[in-house]
Amino acid sequence: MSDAPMVTVVSDFAAAGDYEKKHTPFITLAPHANGTLVNIEVGHEVPHPNGPEHYITFIELYAGMVPIARLDVSPGVTWPSFCVPVTLPAGTVLRAVEHCNLHGWWAYDVTL
Ligand SMILES: [Fe+2]
């Protein structure tokens, strides 16, 4: 039996329920001078709490299996959203992973 945490991957955001939507680290992409601007937002469409009892602890961004960016969140002060410009080839799979202190690990993928 593995000790690895179970990650819920939301593959169809539009079809997800409110519980899934508020935990999904939703990714949007835009052109950038250096390649692509990656925006990650937890709480897209359905806000997630950000107080001392229930909050997002961090968001990480992976290119394939490689971690390339991370945001640590201070509940009530910083919010679980960030933008980062990347230079990566088309076809790269980006995975955003977030951790909720009560509801565990959640992920969302897009392909450049
Ligand atoms: Fe939560």
Write the layout of secondary structure elements.
Elements (H helix, E strand, L loop, with lengths): L6 E3 L8 H6 L1 E8 L2 E8 L13 E8 L2 E7 L8 E6 L6 E8 L3 E8 L1
Parallel strand pairs: 1-8
Antiparallel strand pairs: 2-3, 3-6, 4-5, 4-7, 7-8
The protein binds fe (ii) ion.
Give the tags.
binds fe (ii) ion; mainly beta; 1 helix; 112 residues; Immunoglobulin-like; five-stranded mixed β-sheet; 5% helix
The coarse silhouette is globular
Order of helix and strand elements from N to C terminus: EHEEEEEEE
The major β-sheet equals: 5 strands, mixed
Percent helix: under 10%
Walkthrough of the structure:
By secondary structure, the protein is mainly beta. It has a domain at 35-111: Immunoglobulin-like (Sandwich), CATH 2.60.40.730. The chain has 1 helix and 8 strands. The strands form 2 sheets. The chain has a 5-stranded mixed beta sheet with strand order 1-8-7-4-5, with no helix packed on it. Strands 2-3-6 form a 3-stranded antiparallel beta sheet. The longest helix has 6 residues, at 18-23. The chain binds fe (ii) ion (FE2).
